[in-house]
C-alpha cells in the first residue's frame, strides 16, 4: 500500500478503515444482556481511540488493548470466543498459519473461534480489487484472499474443529464490480451522469435494496460458502 494513498484516504474517511472493529461493537450492543467481557485489540492507536469513543457513546463497556496479532498479550486459554474479520488475509508465508495459531492459543478448550475473510473464489471481488489497484485506489494494502478450504485447513492445523461456515454478498459483489466497470468505461462522462440516488426516490432505492438483499440471502443458503464475497467459519477448540 502506498503511504500517500492511505494518508489521503485516512484524512477523508476514517470510519471505513475502522469498519471491522465498529461492526464488532454493534454486535456487542446486540448481546449486551449477556454481560460479555469484551476485549478489542488493534495495532494502531487511532483505531482503538476511535473504537473507545464509539463504545463510550453507545454505553458499551469493553477493554481496548494496543498489541500485535502475532504476540497477543494474554495467557493461554483466556477467552471463550476469539473473533476477527478482515485481518488474516493480509499475511502470507508462515504468518498465514501463525495468525490462526495465536488466536487458537488464547481460546479456552471447548471455546469458539470465528474468522471472516474475503473469498478467493468470488471473481467479481478479485477483479474489482485488481481494477482499484491499477487505478491506485486500493487502500487496504497487501491482501491474499482465502478459499473456504484453506481457512478450514488452517483452523484444523491450529487445533480448531470447523463446525459451521457461511458466505455473504454474492449479488452485492457483482453489482459493485459492474458499477466499477461502468465508471471505467466512461470516465470523461462521469460528471454528467446522475447517480441512482439522484434519479430515484429514497423509498424506491430502499425497496430495491431490500429485494437484492432477499435474493442474496436465498443464494447464500446454497452457494454462499463457495461464491460469497466474504466467508465466515466458526470452530471449536479441541480437548
TrEMBL record:
Native species: Candidatus Methanophaga sp. ANME-1 ERB7
Molecular function, one GO term: S-adenosylmethionine-dependent methyltransferase activity
Entry superkingdom: Archaea
Lineage of origin: Archaea, Methanobacteriati, Methanobacteriota, Stenosarchaea group, Methanomicrobia
Pfam families assigned to the protein according to its UniProt record, in alphabetical order: Methyltransf_11 (PF08241)
Span of domain Methyltransferase type: 28-115
Name of the featured protein: Methyltransferase type 11 domain-containing protein
InterPro entries reported in the protein's UniProt record: Methyltransf_11, SAM-dependent_MTases_sf
SUPFAM superfamilies according to UniProt: S-adenosyl-L-methionine-dependent methyltransferases
Amino acid at each position: 500500500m502506498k503511504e500517500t494513498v492511505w494518508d489521503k484516504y485516512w484524512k477523508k474517511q476514517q470510519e471505513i478503515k475502522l469498519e471491522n472493529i465498529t461492526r464488532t461493537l454493534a454486535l456487542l450492543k446486540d448481546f449486551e444482556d449477556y454481560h460479555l467481557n469484551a476485549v478489542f485489540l488493534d495495532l494502531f492507536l487511532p483505531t482503538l481511540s476511535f473504537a473507545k469513543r464509539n463504545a463510550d457513546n453507545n454505553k458499551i463497556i469493553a477493554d481496548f488493548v494496543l498489541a500485535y496479532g502475532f504476540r497477543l498479550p494474554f495467557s493461554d486459554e483466556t477467552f471463550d470466543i476469539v473473533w476477527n474479520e478482515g485481518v488474516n488475509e493480509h499475511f502470507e508465508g508462515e504468518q498465514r498459519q501463525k495468525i490462526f495459531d495465536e488466536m487458537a492459543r488464547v481460546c479456552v478448550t471447548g471455546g469458539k473461534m470465528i474468522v471472516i475473510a474475503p473469498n478467493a473464489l468470488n471473481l467479481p471481488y478479485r477483479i474489482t480489487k485488481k481494477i482499484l489497484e491499477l487505478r491506485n485506489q486500493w487502500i487496504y494494502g497487501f491482501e491474499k484472499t482465502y478459499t473456504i478450504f484453506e481457512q478450514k485447513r488452517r483452523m484444523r492445523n491450529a487445533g480448531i474443529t470447523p463446525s459451521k461456515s457461511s458466505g455473504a454478498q454474492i449479488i452485492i459483489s457483482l453489482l459493485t464490480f459492474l458499477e466499477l466497470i461502468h465508471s471505467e468505461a466512461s470516465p470523461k462522462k462521469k460528471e454528467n451522469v446522475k447517480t441512482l440516488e439522484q434519479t430515484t426516490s429514497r423509498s424506491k432505492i430502499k425497496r430495491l435494496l431490500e429485494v437484492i438483499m432477499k435474493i442474496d440471502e436465498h443464494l447464500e443458503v446454497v452457494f454462499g460458502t463457495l461464491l460469497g464475497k466474504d466467508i465466515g467459519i466458526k470452530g471449536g477448540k479441541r480437548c
